[in-house]
Amino acid sequence: MHREHHQWYSPSLGREMEMLVHGHGGARVLAFPTSMGRYHEWQDFGLVGAMREHVENGWIQIFCVDSVDSESWYAKYKHPHDRAVRHEQYDSYLVNEALPFTASRNGNPFVIAAGASFGAYHAMCFAFRHPGIVNRVVGMSGLYDVKTLTDGYSDDAVYFSNPSDFIQNETDWGRLEAMRGMDTILAIGKDDGGRANNERLSASLASRGIPHRLRLWDGWAHDWPYWGDMFRLYVGGQG
User: Fold this and answer.
1) Kind of pairing, strands 3-10 and 15-22?
2) pLDDT tens-digit profile of 160-171?
């Protein structure tokens, strides 16, 4: 399997950022790590291996991005507003640096945002903040209300980085049409503590006329082997 490591200084974040690329072609997958995880997590915990057939056949190319969670939502020493501002800088890194880099390596126009656990939050937030960029979003065992990390605090900065809030209140026709054009998949275990949050997001999506699929898996289903099974099933839009 073709593998590349890349690193550059991010103007958006004012620090070095790293990325692993797996594969040589196909749909571009922007793969987010779990909470405070690193760019090599999908490789280390077997999710890239679970997708070997897809990668080696050139059906997908996985771009594993780094996170700044410990400087944003998990930086408990900061005021929630400042955590949200750091996340907005991360969003700028994704839009203005990471995504253009993927396009420079691979001209395939189809973009998939994917993540598990808190990575699912990142995938969903990125996709719905920029619905004209992402074609499919796959959130596995996700938590989509960041107010759980801010003790309920919200302001404009938190609100616009919180899918559970900004999606249900979206009124811009063009953005709503772009959201409705995405293939959106939420997958979570029936016994996962985040199930109710997924069901609330599903209801919000439905209230805005946004097609999506909420898939409830048996049991807890909150671990890497399950996520490998989920992603194999949903990467092609099936299931």
Assistant:
1) antiparallel
2) 999 999 999 999
